[in-house]
Amino acid sequence: VLCGLWIILVCIVTMPGGAASLLGNLYFTTWSTLFSVISTLIWYHRDWRREISKVIREEEEKYEHTKMIIRKREEKRMARMAEEEEEAKKKTSDAESTKVEEDDDDDDGILCEND
Questions:
Q1: How many other β-carbons are positioned within 10 Å of the β-carbon of residue 10?
Q2: In the chain, what percentage of residues exceed pLDDT 90?
Q3: Is 109 helix (H, G, I), strand (E, B) or coil?
Q4: Which long-range contacts (CB under 8 A, 24 or more apart) does 43-49 make?
Q5: Which residue from 42, 22, 20 is spatially nearest to 30, judged by alpha carbons?
Q6: Distance (Å, rounded) from C-alpha 12 to C-alpha 25?
Q7: pLDDT tens sequence across 58-100
Q8: Given 4, 5, 77, 113, which is the most exposed site by the fewest CB atoms within 10 A?
Q9: pLDDT at position 66
Q10: Per-residue CA distances from 43 to 20, 40, 53, 81, 90 (Å)
Q11: Is the entire prediction scored with pTM above 0.90?
């Protein structure tokens, strides 16, 4: 905003019949100051955008790091759950096989009770 007002002021002051048009040094000083203000504004804007970009990049890296940690934790949890399921299936299959073996032992070679 101030830079825009400065441009208007320089145009008014340096036009024919203006205060700076009567004195040569003031004329050139006014224009050089305008260019200095504009370049300072551009540099400030560029630095400001770099800082914003840096903060965004750091936040993205932090997000990716956190996401990686959570993904590894979930993979470990899923692997542990799969192992527990395998153990549970193994226990149930062992229990069923021992039950079948016990049922086979009750026969004692008798085919029918009536015989």
A1: 19
A2: 37
A3: coil
A4: none
A5: 20
A6: 16
A7: 999 999 999 999 999 999 999 999 999 988 888 887 766 666 5
A8: 113
A9: 95
A10: 27, 5, 15, 57, 70
A11: no
Phi first, then psi, for residue 17 (nearest 5°) are 90, -5
Query: What is the CB neighbour count within 10 angstroms for residue 20?
Result: 19
What is the full DSSP assignment across 34-98? Answer: HHHHHHHHHHHHHHHHHHHHHHHHHHHHHHHHHHHHHHHHHHHHHHHHHHHHHHHHHHHHHHHHH
CB within 8 Å of 2: residues ≥ 6 apart: 37
Q: Which of 49, 29, 35 is nearest to 3 (CA)?
A: 35
Dist CA 24 CA 26 (whole Å): 6
Closest among 27, 43, 34 to 3, alpha carbons compared? 34
DSSP H/E element including 7: helix 2-14
